[in-house]
Amino acid sequence: MRKLIALSCVVSLLWLLPTAVNAQAQADGKKVRMLIVTGGHGFEEAKFFKMFDEFKGVEYKKAFFPQAGELLKPGLEKECDVIVMYDMVKSITPEQQKAFVELLNTGIGLLCMHHDLGASQEWAEFTKIRGGKYCMKAETIDGKEYKSTFDHGQDIKVTVADNEHPITKGVADFTIHDETYGSCYVSPSVKVLLRTDHPKSCPDLAWVHEYAKSKVFYLMLGHDSKAWENPAFKEILERGIKWSVGR
Ligand SMILES: [Zn+2]
After folding, report:
1. Is 43 within a domain?
2. d(CA 47, ligand 1 centre) in Å
3. Is 4 a member of any domain?
4. How many domains does the chain have?
5. Could you tell me the distance, in angstroms and rounded to a whole number, from the CA of residue 108 to the centre of ligand 1?
6. For every one of its 247 residues, what pLDDT tens digit does the chain have, with 9 covering 90 and above?
7. HEC string of 51-93?
8. Which residues surround ligand 1, an ion (CB under 5 A)?
């Protein structure tokens, strides 16, 4: 019996070990490892990656579609804490979709930004993963019709909708020069962090939710360097990265 108790203690300790190791790694200030995925939409590459270079406590690898589709599968979570999706890929294969969902079951962080809202138009599950969709064609979701629009070069007044959430706590309302997306679908189950009353924009600009075991943050802002140089934008993006990996 004593042997059995001793054995069960060892087993319990083994279970506890990964948690303790993770906590220690975080306490040691280990860098957040990101995979930044792009493709299917142009952007100012050098300035975009420069923004991430300036964030403290993060490091990243780049991946591009279509090759990136092969990386988004279980196992990635061992070398990467969060996937940052800034792509607008038309589609990925059914096998890649299945592997991506399995990857999100590992609890890897997911941050989707700006035009990623229009990626994988025909994959309904990705709307659930992101918590929203830019609808390129008129379509009905949850009984309401959407046909999304975009307008470049807008001055958008942004209001913080949640003053308690770690991503937006203490952030003051701000104005940003950016592209607006109008008439987008946003799932009623997400927690909205940023809003606007800009007439050409849908009211919800950023939200969080959970999909499978992953923490998901979607940020609608971020068309080009005019937005990326906005201090409030950078602060929110950096906090979003850290929140999605549980820091
Ligand atoms: Zn854009």
Report:
1. yes
2. 15
3. no
4. 1
5. 26
6. 455 444 444 444 444 444 444 444 454 579 999 999 999 999 999 999 999 999 999 999 999 999 999 999 999 999 999 999 999 999 999 999 999 999 999 999 999 999 999 999 999 999 999 999 999 999 999 999 999 999 999 999 999 999 999 999 999 999 999 999 999 999 999 999 999 999 999 999 999 999 999 999 999 999 999 999 999 999 999 999 999 999 8
7. HHHHCCCEEEEEEECCHHHHCCCCCHHHCCCEEEEEECCCCCC
8. 115, 179, 223
